[in-house]
Amino acid sequence: MATELELKLMVQPEHQTKVCLFLDEFCSDGAENQHFRRPTLSLMNAYYDTPEATLLNAGIALRIRAVDGRFIQTVKTRGSSRVGMHERGEWEWDVPTDSLDLSLLKEVPLPEELKDLSWSKDIVEVFRTDFERQIWDIQYNGTEIEVACDNGDVTSPYGRDQISEVELELKTGNGEDLYSFALVLCDKLPLQVNLVSKAQKGARLKNRKIEFPDTPSANSTNLEFAVYWYETWITYWEAMFYLQDEILIQPVRNSMLQLKKCLSDELHNELDELDRSLSDAMNADNDNVLEALAKVEHTGKVMLHIGLWLNQQIQF
Question: How confident is the model at residue 81, as a pLDDT?
Fold first, then answer.
């Protein structure tokens, strides 16, 4: 079992090439053996669940991945909370074919109600994620980071969604350096923080629901409200592009307004400046408002600055 800590960034498809070129250049400028690019992979993944979404509701993703002539069965579980990040338990096994071996699940600490595997008689393939992955191994401040740029599709009988994202996964070292290197990327590229996993993308093709963070109680701390409004902001931002609905810029900006009330003056000012930039993009004479919003340069940087600060407050 491994614990995966990952920071995910969304990128509009038209900027994917820029991201790859920047990472290639970053690697070529580094010391020998400090950074390198791996061969591009084509990943074909089938995700399994019951029609009632038994695994999804338990925070579990089960898949078979086909890559380079191998079949890999993977289970991911919902991990502990990291603001704006994905932290999950992960189990992987090589299997001989593209068929599930459910006996391997005995190695996973499943919830009590799932341990007898009675639910498995109803298991079916519920969606697929098929994408091309370009990978760079980066040494940054002594931390080893795997950077993956993924481009492809999530498909199911209920529709399709696009995969266009950059993932920064901590291999060894300090989790704060994921933010530090992400800021290097966002300083040059139009990227934003993304909370939606590929498994969540597949599930929402059927349920048509945008997953929002749990609303804090009235007696929650200022920090808990800050985390809530931060993740609500990021959720609305991603939903705006997923649904291709520019009207969602209104709850995006409202979430930013609420978040400002919970932050230091410095971060408060960053949000003010970003809000003005978003307003300018909305009011400019643009045929494509969403495209203009995606190009606002410092959106991702402000998201990362605040996400890093929040994680530091809860002892990263």
Answer: 61
Q: What is the CA radius of gyration of the chain?
A: 20
Element (H, E) at 25: helix 16-29
Q: Which of 227, 30, 41 is nearest to 145 (CA)?
A: 30
Task: Name the stretches of the chain with pLDDT < 50.
Answer: none
Cβ contact 230:259 at 8 Å? yes
What's the pLDDT score for residue 11? 96
The residue extents of the domains of the chain are: 2-204, 210-313
Q: Look at residues 189, 199, 149 and name the one whose alpha carbon lies nearest to residue 169.
A: 149
Residue 276 is predicted with a pLDDT of 96
- Residues near 223 by Cβ (< 8 Å), separated by ≥ 6? 262, 310, 313, 314
- Name the architecture of domain 2-204: Beta Barrel (2.40)
Cβ(124)–Cβ(71) under 8 Å? Answer: no
